[in-house]
Each structure stands twice: as structure tokens, then as C-alpha cells.
Amino acid sequence: MRIITLHCDYIRFKPLKKAIKNAEELKSKEQQEIKEPLVVLTAVEKGDDHGTVKELIESIKKTAKEVKAHDIVLYPYAHLSSNLAHPDTALEYLSEAENCLRAEGFNVTRAPFGHYKEFELKCKGHPLAELSKEFRTDNAGKIIEDTEDYDISKLLKEISRTKLDTSKLKDNDHRILGQKLDLFSFNDVASGSIFWHNNGLIIFNELKGFLKELLRDFEYKEIATPQILDSKLFKVSGHWGHYRNNMLLTKYEERDFGVKPMNCPGAMLIYKTKTRSYKDLPLRFAEFGIDHRRELSGVLAGLFRLIQFTQDDAHIFCTKEQIGEEIENILKMVKIIYKDKFNFDYFLELSTKPEKSMGDKKDWDDAERMLEEQLKKSKVKYKINKGAGAFYGPKIDIQIKDSLDRLWQCATIQLDMQMPKRFEITYVDNDNKEKTPFVIHRAILGAVERFMGVLLEHLNGNLPTWLSPVQARIINFTDRNMKSAEKVISEFKKHIPNLRIDSDFRNTTVNEKIRDAEVMKIPYIIVIGDKEEKANTLAVRERGKKPEFGIKMDKFVKELGEKIDRRI
Hints:
The protein is α+β, with helices and mostly antiparallel strands and about 575 residues long. It contains 16 helices and 28 strands. The protein has 3 domains: about 150 residues, D-tyrosyl-tRNA(Tyr) deacylase (D-tyrosyl-trna(Tyr) Deacylase, Chain: A, 3-Layer(bba) Sandwich), CATH 3.50.80.10; about 250 residues, 2-Layer Sandwich (BirA Bifunctional Protein, domain 2), CATH 3.30.930; about 100 residues, 3-Layer(aba) Sandwich (Rossmann fold). Strand 7 and strand 8 form a beta hairpin. Helix 1 crosses helix 2 and helix 9 packs across helix 10. The model has no long low-confidence stretch (mean pLDDT about 90).
């Protein structure tokens, strides 16, 4: 049983209509008002018994005595629990509590059971005015009372320990850069997860925005699927048998649920919502899915190894004849992002059937052969990684090399012939017969967070202008230049509306302002002094270069706008 007790100035309630079939009959449909009551919002749960009711009564008596309340309102409130007792049982126990409290000399009002009600109350503001409790039985049938009685100060101290231990980290470690550039933080209250600060979220969203443009260019349809799904889905997909130990599990209303570790089962369900024709294929579903995987605390490593992460995922439903072209297009996207945009060298591996897998050997042999044929056709170098495939199919894994010659596995292309069969997904072919499509699972960045960590270390935090949280900073030389500097900011925003520009008008030296901007790795530092104000020009310091003077506003704004638009 769960309750919330509220010491109120008043409560008003009026029954509207039945919420359940076996709701009790109303004695009155009129609004009731009780002044100075102790309101007890109550949810009767499975497993409660007469002993639980006794404990409820004793708790109400104790609280009523402490707040000096003589009027009690028992208010059925099912929203407190997802493990509710049968309505007949709940009504019986609430009626029992009502009668017992009356026998103790209290004025008791019980709100009608099983009805939707409108209600209004005003809670007093003293320390005992709001209390929550839970009554449950242990294995021996003894009542255990849980109350909200915590040492808040102690808990606050424990959850406020967020200082990063930098003693074993290199200067270019993304965790140090994340702290220095105010990008993100970590806290043990959410181990293996990220608290995004504004600057970091800008980078994250810019990466997603770039990818979304590519998705449109390559004709993907974006979807989104739920975070928590019934175990039945994972049993069909095969994850329950092959991946359950890596999943976060929970229960709800006596059903087993899993927090999704990957996005493919949800994509299968969306495909199954309608009849598909060969004319619909290839069908490309893209999803920036938030996934969770159980990881030991000792292996968590900033953005590189997380419990919660975002995959730039996609599932391509296609015919056997379409596989080659689809993989070719995926490799084109890989090149655009890795080489053309960020100048990473990358290497390909063909990962084959693992020991624990599902499906026939022939299906695996066919899938591995098709992937290898495409790799040979693309004339890219690759190596075989035996036994490293996914449990449902072989894959092409793509590793990128950073500025420190470290290899990172990011992108993956997986060919799946098992899951489509298990989900019984089909398409109607041109001969009017139902056939099973192939599914290509692919991610380009892999985990967006991980790629961002790699990129930060690869560039030592010197992100390109389009990706930088602050793209330009205006600095005034003296106080008398402040108005002119503010006009410059307005001109920039007029011509580049989405420009991320800020200012430093502090009463300190220009050198100190420049040094602070350099620490934040801002691409452009613009100084406005007397000379610039008089000549209507800019003094521009581009990151890593010597300052230039006498720069014309129009020319610079145009070049900067083009640079951002072209993402360079």
C-alpha cells in the first residue's frame, strides 16, 4: 500500500463519471468540501491484507495527532502504483480503514471509489504537511513501513562529487577538453551517461544536423522507436537469448521489459505496419536511437564507453539484387564524413560468423560472400576478422585512425537474413508472391558520443568553424569602443542570423581577453579599437594565425558565412 498524506486548509471534490465497471454506487453527485483535513491519497496494492490496513490506520492516527487534525479524507488514488489490487479488495480495505478511524473518534470522509473526480486542495506549508509512505510485507508476513526520511545534506554532498581526476589523463584527453571548453560533465547518479552542457550539445546537434542532410540526399526516412519494450519483442528478435546479459531489464505490471540495446527490433515493427511492395524497396529507415547497454563501471571511459549512447542507426530493407548498390552508397557516405569532412584515414574489416549465432550456415556463407564481393568491387583494402560478426549476420566494420595513430571502430555495415525471417516481414514481388527482404543494418558515426570524443582528441579541441560552439568573439579595446563593438555584432547577426557570436567587454586588458578566447579555442577573435571604429574595419585573429588588420566588414562577413554554409 502506498499513501501520500497532505495536511490541507481545504479539499473540494466532485465525482464526474465511472472509471471502472465495478465502481461503487454514488451516495451523492454534489461537490463536497472539507476544511482543515488530513487528506490521505491511497493506493491498495496486490499482497496487501488486513495487517496492512491496520498499519495504515496507525500511521494516519500518528500523523493526525502530530498535525492536530480531526477530519480525515480517504481519497482513492490509483496513480500511486502500477501494482494495484483487485478493485473489490481495494474497496473492502478502504471501507475497513474508514470504519476503524470513525471508531477512533475521527470525522472521516471517503471519496467515491472507481470514479473520475475533479478536485481542488490547498496544502499547508509546514514540514509535516506532505508525507509519503509505503507499507509492504516481508517473506514472514511482517509489515515494513518505508517513509521518506533521508539525510538530504549527506545525499547532496554525495551526488555533488563531480571533480574529474586528471592525474592519469593526457592534456588532449576529451574529458579534460570537455571540462575546459564547458562541453559536458559526468555524475555517478547516472553512471555511463552524459550531462550535456550548452556548448557540448551544440556540437552534438551540429553533427546530427550534418548527418540529417546526408540522409535526405540518400533518400532515407527518419523514424523513432520507444526506449523500453516488452521482452516478447526481444525474444522474437533473438536479443533475449543472445544479448540479455548486456541489457538493462525492468518489470511493469508483471511483465518483463528491456531498455533497448539497439534499434533494429523497433524498425522491424514499423516495417510490419503495412503491406510492402517490391516498388517500395529499397526502404531506408534512419533513427538517432538512444540505446542502453550494461557495462561494468571499471570499463566506462568518458565518451568512449557509455551505458547510454546515441546511434546514427539505419535499417535498409531491400532485395538481393539491391544489396550491392546499397552497400556502395553506404561506403560513399562513409567517405564523405570520414575523409572529405574530417580527414580521417579509415580501414575496413569483414567480420564473419561468431561462435554464438543464429541461422543456417548456408545463409551465413551467402551473406559473407555477398559482402566480400562488394568489398572487392569497391576496390578498397580490407582484412578478414574471423568470428567477429553480429549474432544475426556478418558485417563490415570500419576503423578510423586519429592524429595519434590510434584506431577506433566506429562505422558498421551488417547484412541480416535472420531477423527478417523471425519477424516474418515480407514484400509482394512483381510475380505477386510474398518474399522475404534482406536487411542491412548500418551506422556511420556509430555512437555519436564516441565519435565526438575521438574528434575532440583528433583535433585537440580545435573544431572547424561550423562545429564550434562559439564561432566568433568580439572584443572591445577600451570602454569607449563598446558601442561600436555592439554595432559590429548586430551587423554580423543581420547577415548571418544563426552565427554563434559572443562578446567580451570586461574591464581588463585586451591580451587577457584574447588569451581567454584562445583557451576556449574560438575560431575568430575580432578586436574593435579606435582605428577600427574610425575606419569601419575589423582586426581579425583567426585561430592559429597571426592577426590581420584593416579587414573590410562586408568581405569578412561574406567569407565567414560561406565557410559556415559549406561546413569548413
